[in-house]
């Protein structure tokens, strides 16, 4: 059905009867806004209003549906056309509704899928973890600005729901794939009663002096371990690289976990992810220094 045509016809017949939109609306117990919408072709009146509206406008149902006056000799033909048109409109509406329903079902499935992934990730995220700060994070950018050697500082955040007594750092050194040393380099003692189960660790690498500075910062203060030697004759190595844990990593209490691997070489270095170093330990560089951590 042509809503615009029907709307104009309603307006024409209303004026013919000398009625305003408000007066017509009052006769139908409706608002003049509803009449305005009909006449602008936005929508049709409710089916329950058809007969009363046609009576007020002095038109037949067929004329109303056709949106024009119908001569008596063609009224039967027009009635058939209106019935056919209504049938077509109904089929089109059903097709449209089916498309809408299918679209809503697809959207619902996608929503459930995304929500399920979010919930799954939330539930599987470690509650006790250590993770690196992203290179572009405000913390890393600030730390690099404060450092004498931008790029040689690494920041980590840890969160422990479980109480722990101490946080120990270990240094393991390899030369051409052979382990040459493995030692405990510093221990930071924890007081769970003061809420120090969450904190940040900063590793400051001084390549020229071949030393490390380790800072453990938490809610109540911080500890610093300075000038930890990790390599001799560093000038012999002209290439260096480092790897660190790449994402939120579960804390394995009372067990050493690799945190950072520093690699040096005379010509090139092979950079391996921490996970691969932990599982395969394929350390082939001229020199590799691995920093591990243990929550006791």
Which key phrases capture this entry?
11 strands, membrane, 296 residues, 5-stranded antiparallel β-sheet, alpha+beta, single chain
Outline the structure in words.
- Keywords: DNA-binding, Membrane, Transmembrane, Transmembrane helix.
- The chain is an alpha+beta fold and 296 residues long.
- The protein folds into 3 domains: 3-66, lambda repressor-like DNA-binding domains (434 Repressor (Amino-terminal Domain), Orthogonal Bundle); 77-124; 129-295, no CATH class.
- The protein contains 8 helices and 11 strands.
- Strands 7-6-5-2-1-9 form a 6-stranded antiparallel sheet, covered by helices on one side. Strands 4-3-11-10-8 form a 5-stranded antiparallel sheet.
- Strand 3 (166-175) and strand 4 (178-189) form a beta hairpin.
- The mean pLDDT is 81.
Mean pLDDT: 81
CA distance, first residue to last residue: 78 Å
Number of domains: 3
Strand percentage, roughly? Answer: 25-35%
Please state how the strands of the largest beta sheet are arranged side by side. Answer: 7-6-5-2-1-9
What is the alpha-carbon Rg in Å? Answer: 39 Å
Residues in helices, as a percent range: 25-40%
Low confidence ranges: none
Distinct helical segment count: 8
CA-based shape: rod-shaped
> Tell me about the biggest sheet?
6 strands, antiparallel
Transmembrane segments: 100-120
GO molecular function: DNA binding
Keywords: DNA-binding, Membrane, Transmembrane, Transmembrane helix
Pfam family, one: HTH_3
What is the gist of this entry?
InterPro entries: Cro/C1-type_HTH, Lambda_DNA-bd_dom_sf. The protein has 296 residues and is an alpha+beta fold. 36% of the residues lie in helices and 29% in strands.
């Amino acid at each position: 059905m042509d809503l615009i045509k029907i709307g104009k016809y309603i307006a024409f017949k209303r004026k013919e009867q000398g009625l305003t939109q408000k007066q017509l609306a009052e006769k139908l117990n409706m608002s003049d806004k509803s009449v305005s919408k009909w006449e602008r072709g936005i929508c049709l009146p409710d089916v329950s209003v058809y007969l009363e509206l046609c009576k007020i406008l002095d038109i037949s149902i067929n004329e109303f549906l056709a949106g024009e006056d119908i001569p008596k000799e063609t009224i039967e033909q027009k009635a058939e056309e209106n019935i056919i048109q209504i049938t077509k409109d109904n089929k089109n509406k059903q097709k449209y509704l089916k498309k809408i329903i299918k679209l809503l079902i697809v959207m619902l499935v996608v929503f459930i899928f995304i929500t399920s992934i979010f919930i799954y990730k939330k539930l599987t995220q470690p509650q006790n973890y250590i993770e690196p700060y992203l290179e572009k994070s405000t913390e890393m950018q600030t730390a690099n600005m404060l450092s004498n050697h931008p790029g040689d500082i690494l920041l980590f955040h840890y969160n422990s729901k479980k109480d722990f007594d101490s946080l120990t750092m270990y240094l393991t050194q390899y030369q051409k794939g052979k382990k040459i040393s493995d030692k405990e380099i510093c221990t930071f003692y924890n007081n769970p009663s003061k809420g120090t189960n969450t904190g940040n660790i900063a590793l400051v690498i001084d390549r020229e002096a071949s030393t490390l500075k380790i800072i453990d910062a938490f809610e109540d203060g911080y500890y610093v371990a300075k000038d930890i030697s990790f390599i001799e004759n560093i000038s012999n190595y002209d290439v260096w690289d480092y790897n660190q844990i790449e994402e939120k990593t579960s804390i394995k209490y009372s067990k050493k976990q690799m945190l950072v691997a520093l690699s040096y070489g005379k010509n090139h270095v092979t950079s391996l992810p921490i996970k691969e170093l932990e599982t395969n330990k394929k350390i082939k560089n001229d020199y590799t220094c691995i920093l591990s951590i243990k929550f006791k």
